[in-house]
Amino acid sequence: MKEQRREIINDSMQALHALAKLMPQLNAQCSPVEMLETINSALGANLSWVSVESADGPRVVCAGDVTCHAFNVADFLA
Question: At the top level of its lineage, which domain of life is listed (predicted)?
Protein backbone atom coordinates (compact mmCIF):
# COMPACT_ATOMS: atom_id res chain seq x y z
CA MET A 1 0.00 0.00 0.00
CA LYS A 2 2.81 2.43 0.83
CA GLU A 3 4.45 1.76 -2.54
CA GLN A 4 1.24 2.53 -4.44
CA ARG A 5 0.67 5.70 -2.41
CA ARG A 6 4.23 6.91 -3.03
CA GLU A 7 3.82 6.33 -6.76
CA ILE A 8 0.63 8.39 -6.81
CA ILE A 9 2.42 11.24 -5.04
CA ASN A 10 5.36 10.98 -7.45
CA ASP A 11 3.00 11.02 -10.45
CA SER A 12 1.32 14.12 -9.04
CA MET A 13 4.65 15.85 -8.61
CA GLN A 14 5.65 14.99 -12.17
CA ALA A 15 2.35 16.35 -13.45
CA LEU A 16 2.92 19.59 -11.52
CA HIS A 17 6.41 19.92 -13.02
CA ALA A 18 4.92 19.40 -16.49
CA LEU A 19 2.31 22.08 -15.82
CA ALA A 20 5.01 24.46 -14.61
CA LYS A 21 6.84 23.93 -17.89
CA LEU A 22 3.60 24.77 -19.72
CA MET A 23 3.10 28.07 -17.90
CA PRO A 24 4.76 30.25 -20.58
CA GLN A 25 2.17 28.97 -23.08
CA LEU A 26 -0.72 29.74 -20.72
CA ASN A 27 -1.24 33.48 -20.66
CA ALA A 28 -3.99 36.01 -20.09
CA GLN A 29 -4.67 36.28 -23.83
CA CYS A 30 -5.64 32.59 -23.99
CA SER A 31 -9.26 31.68 -23.49
CA PRO A 32 -10.01 29.07 -20.81
CA VAL A 33 -10.77 26.59 -23.59
CA GLU A 34 -7.36 27.20 -25.21
CA MET A 35 -5.62 26.79 -21.85
CA LEU A 36 -7.37 23.51 -21.10
CA GLU A 37 -6.69 22.19 -24.61
CA THR A 38 -2.98 23.00 -24.14
CA ILE A 39 -2.90 21.21 -20.79
CA ASN A 40 -4.81 18.20 -22.14
CA SER A 41 -2.57 17.79 -25.19
CA ALA A 42 0.65 18.21 -23.20
CA LEU A 43 -0.36 15.64 -20.60
CA GLY A 44 -1.85 13.20 -23.11
CA ALA A 45 -5.26 13.54 -21.52
CA ASN A 46 -8.82 13.18 -22.73
CA LEU A 47 -10.57 15.30 -20.14
CA SER A 48 -13.73 17.36 -19.93
CA TRP A 49 -13.70 20.48 -17.79
CA VAL A 50 -16.95 21.95 -16.51
CA SER A 51 -17.63 24.99 -14.34
CA VAL A 52 -20.20 24.20 -11.66
CA GLU A 53 -22.06 26.73 -9.54
CA SER A 54 -22.71 25.64 -5.97
CA ALA A 55 -23.62 27.24 -2.65
CA ASP A 56 -19.89 27.61 -1.95
CA GLY A 57 -19.30 29.42 -5.24
CA PRO A 58 -18.11 28.34 -8.69
CA ARG A 59 -15.64 25.48 -9.09
CA VAL A 60 -14.13 23.59 -11.99
CA VAL A 61 -14.82 19.86 -12.23
CA CYS A 62 -12.78 17.51 -14.38
CA ALA A 63 -13.87 14.13 -15.74
CA GLY A 64 -12.24 11.71 -18.14
CA ASP A 65 -9.11 9.65 -18.62
CA VAL A 66 -5.53 10.74 -18.22
CA THR A 67 -3.40 8.58 -20.49
CA CYS A 68 -0.22 10.26 -19.33
CA HIS A 69 2.33 8.01 -17.63
CA ALA A 70 5.50 8.81 -15.73
CA PHE A 71 7.68 8.09 -18.77
CA ASN A 72 5.60 10.49 -20.91
CA VAL A 73 6.12 13.25 -18.35
CA ALA A 74 9.85 12.49 -18.19
CA ASP A 75 10.08 12.77 -22.01
CA PHE A 76 8.10 16.01 -21.94
CA LEU A 77 10.35 17.54 -19.29
CA ALA A 78 13.58 16.44 -21.02
Answer: Bacteria
